[in-house]
Amino acid sequence: MSERYDVIVLGVGGMGSATVAHLADRGVDVLGLERYDIPHSYGSSHGLSRLFRLAYFEHSAYVPLLQRAEELWQDLEADHDSQLLYRTGSIDAGPEGDALVEGSKRSCEEHDLEYDLLSSSELTDRFPGYRLPEGYEAVYQPQGGFLRPEECTVAHVNRAHRDGATIRARERVVDWRPTDGGVRVETDHGAYEADRLVITAGAWAARFVDELEGVAVPERQVLAWLHPTEPDQFDPERFPVWNLQVPEGRFYGFPVFGVPGFKFGRYNHREETVDPDAFEREATQADERLLREFAEEYFPTGAGPTMRLQTCLFTNTPDDHFVLDTLPDHPQVAVGAGFSGHGFKFASVIGEILADLALEGETDHDVDLFSLDRFD
Question: Can you tell me the distance from the alpha carbon of 134 to that of 123, in angstroms, rounded to the nearest whole number?
């Protein structure tokens, strides 16, 4: 006999833990299945800090979701024993007229967000850790900051447990199939049945959803922590989180927090599409060199000795927008995937959306941008 639940959530990382918590809060009998530890460092929801920014150049439609996510993070933090969201302000910077800067300004103006537009010299005067070339400009938005991803996952799991959820770690899902009454999920420990299924499997999502093949593509990512030669310039009180477009690519970073070193990375690092079960998990000297050369050029007082290097996984869609939808042939299955290196800040509201989709097949949130059929 298989155990029976209302909903099963496949994957209990950043998105899955939030989904389990929202479902349990609604009184749903929910099972979360995770192949690794909770939390773990094999996927996308780790690294001590993740950007939170309301000025969103990617598309202004994200801003209402961010505002709801902010409310939900604050609610979760009030129910947790340590801080989850830290305010530093956020910087979006690049050459004058660059799409990153213009998109950030546009999202602030469309949604009445406070911001300052700074020249490169004004940016350095206010925040000395930044040393951008003449002719660059930056959007400073004071509500930005960073989240603690591992602690956010723990907080969601703790809330889910208090509300009666069952979560099993170290249990790998082998396969799932639709049934007349819902779904059947097989693991390396046994089998479970449920009325509904939510798939939040990160870099492994395409293995469980045929429609995501070639749509949700895993990519190797590397982060560096370098010890600043002027440490006070990189304290959270003096160093906003940032996105920066330069000829070498688009980079992002954080103040010193939690471990020695100021943290940063390059989006799509070395553009390495990978098998999430078989790739170079150890950072290399080539990885370090790429990141160090960037820091020496644009954050010279941050480019001291290397303290730490770490890999993670992006799962990218062709347009870098998320997938939040139910499956066309199996409406009892909801999918959250393809967060393309900018999804974690949304995890709290994505959990709410996926709970809506699982239970109702629709959500009041505007998720038209994230439909699966856009790739048909």
Answer: 11
